[in-house]
């Protein structure tokens, strides 16, 4: 496998960061709006969203461990959302939530890995000296 340089990782990290944040908020909005449309009590929606909100500080700091944990947390949401898709009263919000959670899982997995690799690289780019 080709080893990526820091210059190769910068655009990947930027794109992964943006995609992570977009899919993260799409998932939260889908959970809240879908729950409200289906008549779920607000207190249950709060308990459904709080585990996702815990990761905001780590995502803002770009902590690869927080991002990795978010990746694994999304798997729990994935199982519940997919089970909801098989119910007769599914909505467009369930479909958007499953797309968001699948995207979030894949992107956070790659984002965490690239972030870890970029931080492990030396600060000096030796390729410019040659």
Strand content: under 5%
Mean pLDDT: 88
What's the order of the H and E elements? HHHHH
Tell me the number of structural domains.
Answer: 1
Alpha-carbon distance between the termini?
24 Å
The amount of helix comes to over 70%
Q: List how many beta strands DSSP finds.
A: 0
Could you name the ranges where pLDDT drops below 50 across 5 or more consecutive residues? none
**Global Rg:** 18 Å
Number of helices, counting only DSSP H or I runs of 4 residues or more: 5
How does the major sheet shape up? none
Q: Quaternary status of these chains?
A: single chain
Helix and strand content put the structural class at: mainly alpha
Shape: elongated
Kindly describe this structure.
The mean pLDDT is 88. With 130 residues, the protein is mainly α. The protein has 5 helices and no strands. Helices cover 78% and strands 0% of the residues. It starts with 5 loop residues before the first helix and ends in a 10-residue tail after the last helix. The chain has one domain (6-121).
């Amino acid at each position: 496998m080709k080893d990526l340089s820091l210059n190769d990782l910068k655009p990947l990290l930027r794109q992964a960061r943006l995609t992570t944040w977009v899919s993260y908020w799409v998932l939260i909005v889908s959970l809240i709006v879908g729950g409200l449309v289906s008549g779920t009590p607000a207190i249950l929606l709060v308990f459904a969203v709080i585990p996702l909100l815990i990761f905001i500080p780590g995502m803002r700091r770009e902590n690869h461990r927080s991002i990795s944990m978010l990746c694994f947390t999304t798997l729990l949401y994935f199982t519940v959302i997919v089970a909801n898709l098989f119910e007769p009263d599914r909505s467009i919000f369930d479909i958007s939530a499953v797309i968001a959670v699948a995207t979030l899982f894949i992107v956070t997995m790659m984002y965490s890995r690239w972030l870890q690799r970029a931080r492990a690289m030396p600060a000096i780019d030796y390729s410019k000296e040659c």
